[in-house]
Specification:
251 residues; alpha+beta; 5-stranded antiparallel β-sheet; 5 helices; globular
Length: 251
């Protein structure tokens, strides 16, 4: 039977922004990614032995760690929070960012292989308009995935919604691994394969992806441009995740 799920729209108060220049966007995304996996994740790992990041405050942040510290990347630059006070700094280079957050520089050793590669003093390229797009995208993705997780909480044993620094995308996994229905549901800011941001459904078991819905070798992707063209991107995003789930479960 053809799945016919009825998704619950996700409230996303901030509309998606157009990508004015894709090359500038990719350069900015790569700089944020480098900061995430070489600085923010390292700061959290040094204090807690954990690396997961979160979408927060129009960007990406660690959860609070150590002595009520939090490290953030936003469209306004770097933000260091402690005891409710915030100090900001411009994004310039990885070494300067590590010094700002008082952390060693580099991915945590023997934890993951970093995807980005910059010398400590290489200039990080950040375009203001592109940074705003990234901030809005992570907020949109977080709202979408948080609502999706809540809808499936009692049935599919979902993980937390986290941003893994080496991939730099928000994701939650849920479903039954033994029955082949568990999958990663995520919001990527783009990568080497798909330059623009996209939502995705990535089944753990990819041996039976014989439906046109699965438009990637690893699963299905819904691009940023398709979402921006939709009358209500939140409804389309919720429908996409629900349809992926329905195809996996037959429900």
């Amino acid at each position: 039977p053809t799945p016919n799920p009825t998704p619950t729209p996700t409230p996303n108060p901030t509309p998606l922004l157009p990508i004015a220049d894709l090359a500038s966007f990719v350069a900015t995304r790569t700089s944020w990614h480098a900061l995430g996996e070489h600085v923010l994740a390292r700061a959290r790992w040094e204090a807690t032995g954990r690396i997961g990041l979160r979408a927060a405050d129009g960007g990406v942040a660690t959860p609070h760690y150590g002595d009520d510290l939090r490290a953030c990347i936003t469209a306004d630059g770097l933000v260091r929070e402690q005891y409710g006070e915030a100090v900001t700094a411009p994004i310039t280079a990885l070494g300067a960012a590590a010094e700002f957050f008082s952390t060693p520089l580099g991915a945590p050793p023997d934890v993951y292989t970093p995807t980005t590669s910059f010398a400590a003093d290489d200039t990080l390229t950040v375009d203001g308009a592109a940074a705003n797009v990234l901030g809005v995208w992570f907020a949109f993705g977080n709202a979408t995935l948080t609502r999706w997780r809540a809808e499936r909480r009692d049935r599919d044993t979902p993980s937390l919604v986290q941003l893994w620094p080496e991939h730099f995308d928000l994701a939650v996994d849920l479903g039954d691994a033994e029955r082949g229905t568990r999958a990663n549901y995520g919001a990527s800011p783009g990568d080497a394969q798909i330059a623009e941001p996209y939502l995705y459904v990535g089944p753990w078991d990819t041996t039976h992806l014989d439906d046109p819905f699965w438009n990637q070798s690893w699963g299905a992707a819904l691009t940023y441009s398709a979402l921006c063209a939709a009358p209500d991107p939140a409804v389309v995003a919720a429908s996409f995740l629900a349809h992926g789930h329905a195809r996996l479960t037959g429900a």
